[in-house]
Specification:
The protein is mainly α and about 325 residues long. Helices cover about 55% and strands about 5% of the residues. The longest helix is centred in the C-terminal third of the chain and has 40 residues, at about 280-320.
Length: about 325
């Protein structure tokens, strides 16, 4: 190969992009490249790796940060990173969610799909090509993750709340003369609801902690549509005007001696249930059941929309040729 001209890269060399390169001109040329270009260039050749390795490290750190934002429901922060570097959506990264579920190799879009976080995946789709999105969805559902293709936590929450409501309905003495074994079982069932709530994808907790909307609207559960942005609050009420954030999860509180309820209240409550009653749990059951149905339907619709977008693109290309 023809040697590089010395006035550009320093002493002549028989190896293109050798380790003897004078880095000053390279760094000058690098000013015309984006960080993404530098990252890709660093992966393409060992000499470039030594020059631009810092951009790989920066990109890896940024991708990890993006994964944290997505898993923790920090949608605005996640969008800011994606808008700055959409190529992050192609990165398969390590993600650990609030509950501790670890994913060794997953894209942030796939995590949102796994979690049924429709608000998050809707945001991501603004920056992701439909064909790539469909490929990632297909890969997720064909190959799955170590935690399955999609979370089952929401369905388990419906079952746990339903079990509490059923037991209460069947065993409750309306004179509040509850035998101690029944009282103990109700309390255990309530704590079981809390345990399952710990495992929820963060968007479910966001629904509980919605700052402006209860679980009962005009006598019905919310629509849970995507037309309105989901506030990513995780704040709950305690007694005596105290507030507590659900996260980080601790070895006490939620699932140990309390569970979340919302009903038609102005905010979510983390209740110990020292006085055993039904409270707003029947409203919670109706709302979470509806949420589970809606999110499953939205995932099915997403697949149809992506398939239609890909087919339409192929049809338009055929027309052009």
């Amino acid at each position: 190969m023809k040697t590089i001209r010395p006035w550009l890269f320093g002493p002549p060399t028989n190896t293109f992009f050798s380790n003897e390169l004078n880095t000053d001109p390279i760094n000058y040329l690098a000013t015309f490249l984006t960080d993404t270009d530098k990252k890709h260039l660093a992966k393409s050749h060992h000499a470039c790796f030594s020059l631009f390795n810092s951009y790989i490290q920066t990109a890896n750190k940024t991708a990890w940060t993006l994964g944290c934002h997505v898993a923790e429901g920090e949608q605005d922060q996640a969008e800011a990173l994606i808008k700055n570097d959409p190529s992050l959506l192609f990165e398969e990264i390590k993600i650990t969610d609030n509950y501790g579920n670890f994913f060794p190799k997953i894209t942030v879009f796939q995590y949102a799909l796994w979690a049924y976080d429709a608000h998050m995946w809707t945001m991501i789709l603004k920056y992701l090509d439909p064909q790539i999105a469909l490929q990632q969805l297909n890969d997720l559902e064909m190959n799955g993750t170590i935690h399955g293709a999609h979370t089952t936590a929401i369905d388990k929450l419906v079952q746990a709340i339903n079990k509490y409501v059923d037991y209460y309905t069947n065993k409750m003495d309306w004179n509040y003369d509850i035998p101690e074994p029944v009282s103990n079982e109700l309390r255990a069932l309530w704590y079981e609801v809390g345990k399952v709530q710990r495992s929820q994808p963060v968007h479910v907790i966001n629904e509980y902690c919605h700052p402006h909307r209860a679980f009962k609207v005009n006598g019905h559960p919310p629509s849970f549509s995507l037309d309105e942005k989901l506030p990513r609050s995780t704040h709950t009420n305690l007694f005596q005007g105290e507030y507590k954030d659900v996260y980080p999860l601790q070895n006490k509180g939620l699932g140990y001696n309390s569970a979340l309820t919302r009903g038609d209240a102005n905010s979510a409550w983390m209740l110990h249930r020292s006085r055993i009653d039904l409270g707003d749990t029947d409203m919670d059951l109706a709302a979470i059941s509806h949420l589970w149905e809606v999110r499953q339907a939205q995932l099915k619709q997403l697949r149809l929309d992506l398939e239609l977008a890909v087919r339409s693109r192929k049809t338009s290309r055929c027309v052009l040729f």
